[in-house]
Here is the input.
Amino acid sequence: MPDAMTNVGCFLGRLVERESQTVLVHRGVPFSGARLRGEVDAWVERLRGHAVGPGTVCAYVGDYGDGTVSLTFAIMQLGATAMPLAESALANMHDLLAIAGARLLVRFGPDMSAASATVEVRGASPQNALIERFQATGHAGLIVFTSGSTGGPKGILHDCEKVLEKFATVRPGWRTILFLAMDHFGGFNTLLSCFAYDGVGITVPQRLPEPVCHAIEEAAAELLPTTPTFLNMLLASGSLRKSQLSSLRLITYGAEPMPQPTLQRISAAFPNVELKQTYGLSELGVLHSRSKDRQSLWLRVGGEGFETRIVDGQLHIRSVSNMVGYLNAPSPIDDEGWMNTGDLVEEKDGMYRFLGRKSEIINVGGQKVFPSEVESVLLDAPDVVEATVHGRPHPLLGQAVAARVSIAGKEDSNVVVQRLREFCRQNLARFKVPMSFEIVEADAQANTRAKKQRPR
Here is the structure.
């Protein structure tokens, strides 16, 4: 067991303190602190048998379950470095393992249990220089990868001692749906908060409306941390009409811009639920945030341990809990500790409204178009349930606006395109009106993380 005075030691000690309480609900089965602690201990012995210790990178493929959660905590206890991977990473698994210098690869069966796990010891490979330097600290680490939307994925190394500082003060916990994936920093942050505070983590078999609603209802979940894209899917699915979700007290959303029409509809669908916009980056952590009100996209971000400023319209952040560094790229954090997030924002009275990422701006003949603005207009059109806007090459203008749209019910595609183009003309400047429309099913607009799948 790590020194109880360390952040990791204090965190793992919460399992002992809550030995008789439910800390995890997986596939409807409750796990007490004592039961999960037993699984952690078993993993510690198993990992020690493979010579896992401080600095050892342990990769594992799977989603939330008692096996994956207990393995994560065992890796932390041994001062090793956890590298969670989603099934979607299998295509470039070899490259990711090589970047991190992973020595162990654990694969889980469909039930995500420890009993279903197989451990593969990988052959000797060159150790990453950053990992070697970090190893000297003896601290537990975490590696997550960026999505690779601009270039190849970057490996991000975090010091778990730093990450856990924000959880040092015990606060009331929530019965929380573990929606954000394990290999996503936001998901890791959610998992930690469930156990650091007196909360309960509730797993879902799929990130789709029906199974999520079932999990909320069955386990009396209070908190749903999710994405605007999933909330749109939820509104369009009809699952709300068939579910009893009265236990929900808070819905948090982030990871992508929230369209104003979606926020208004969610607010109407959940009149007694608090709605909160969140903000964070894998490199810097999750910032404290407070929305102006439940129907506003303006929020205050920062708080203890974070500083913010705006430079050329882009948000810059300085954090005490920022990453150790990239494993395979130069650090984006300057000598003074500031990082340019690439997020374009408006500022008013100390509050921010996010406009979108600079890399996603569409340049139409020298005029800028924010995809989120056009998407919000399209979502206000009758029967539109989802819209994704992107730029496409144009021989004269450089780029043109294109839209993928999902509609409710059946309607001739030519009629849909005609009425949507006219609706946009009435509500947007001419250069912002999409030149092309593609009608697709709503589920085709989301990726495996329930985020908008914006064509490149």
Q: What stands out?
A: The first strand starts at residue 22 and ends at 26. The first helix runs from residue 7 to 17. The domain at 361-445 is CATH 3.30.300.30 (GMP Synthetase; Chain A, domain 3).
